[in-house]
Amino acid sequence: MRPALALAALLICAVTTVSAQVADLRSKTEFRVCADPAAVPMSSEDGQGFENRIAELFGEKLGLPVVYTWFPQGPGFIRKTLRAGLCDVVIGYAQGDEMVQNTNHYYTSAYGIVTRKDSPLASVETLEDPALQDHPIGVVAGTPPATNLARAGLAKNMRGWDLFVDRRVEDPVGEMLAQVKSGELAAAVIWGPLAGPLVKQDADLQFTPLLKETSGPRMFYRITMGVRLGEQEWKRQLNSLIRRHQDEIDVVLRDAGVPLLDDYGKSLKP
After folding, report:
1. Distance, CA of 64 to CA of 47 (rounded, Å)
2. Which of 46, 110, 176, 196 could form a disulfide with 188 if both were Cys (CB 3.0 to 4.6 A apart)?
């Protein structure tokens, strides 16, 4: 056999072996989910998060029991869970991240402003609104709205919380909402799926999605499920479930209080 043909044969065998190894990682007897045990209201070890409910829905449709691998989201989350072969899907993952292979998105949401309903800032719809000047505003450092707040000249007003924390011991979103409620903060800018469900439970607070930003990073993101690179069959199976059961997924998200947008982040989904 010629050297070039031999090399090609070896490469084909290697690719086939890797593909087989990837396929073998997925459990056929359990719906194995990688999740943060304390990412309330998205996922929680007590099963009350809306991602838990979506996992249960998919487990039911697949006829498989749902089994979790718990690990705090942050550096190392994908490497120590999904890529380690301990679980087979991350229920909520932003579209376009190279750490995973994304399914089709199953919802779109946005960052927004949380204020008291009786606040003078309750009508604010954009971070460029002059009404925000000289008011303390909570934001998670390193997120897109932090950039937009700085571009709007509000850096001096920002009160920052860390992006990656172990939520079993820290609760940045809960702290921000408590401070808005008490008046210590005039507003907080938070990711909708985190803030919306919690605000829904508090009669004093409101969430306004940022749909009218004209500059800076975009405020809306499409959310997918994440699987291992190369697991095409598994991705197609999940895509089929998303497509066939989108109405049921939407019911779970709306019931939780997640603000749902159209695919282009321009308006609330009907």
Report:
1. 16
2. 176
One-letter-per-residue 3-state SS of the chain: CCHHHHHHHHHHHHHHHHHHHHHHHCCCCCEEEEECCEECCCEECCCCCHHHHHHHHHHHHHCCCEEEEECCCCCCHHHHCCCCCCCCEEEEEECCCCCCEECCCCEEEEEEEEEECCCCCCCCCCCCCHHHCCCCEEEECCCHHHHHHHHCCCHHHEEEECCCCCCCCCCHHHHHHHHHHHCCCCEEEEEHHHHHHHHHCCCCEEEEECCCCCCCCCCEEEEEEEECCCCHHHHHHHHHHHHHCHHHHHHHHHHHCCCCECCCCCCECC
CA angle 217, 219, 222 (to 5 degrees): 115
Q: Read off the tokens for 203.
A: 């009669």
Q: Residue 137: pLDDT band by 50, 70, 90 thresholds?
A: very high
More confident residue, 176 or 9: 176
pLDDT interval class at 59 (50, 70, 90): very high
Strands 31-35 and 66-70: parallel
Q: Is the pLDDT of residue 32 over 80?
A: yes
What does the pLDDT read at residue 21? 46
Residue 220 reports pLDDT greater than 50: yes
Domains of the chain, with CATH numbers? 26-106+222-256 (3.40.190.10), 108-209 (3.40.190.10)
Q: Give the pLDDT score at 76.
A: 92
Radius of gyration for the alpha carbons in the chain, expressed in angstroms and rounded: 21
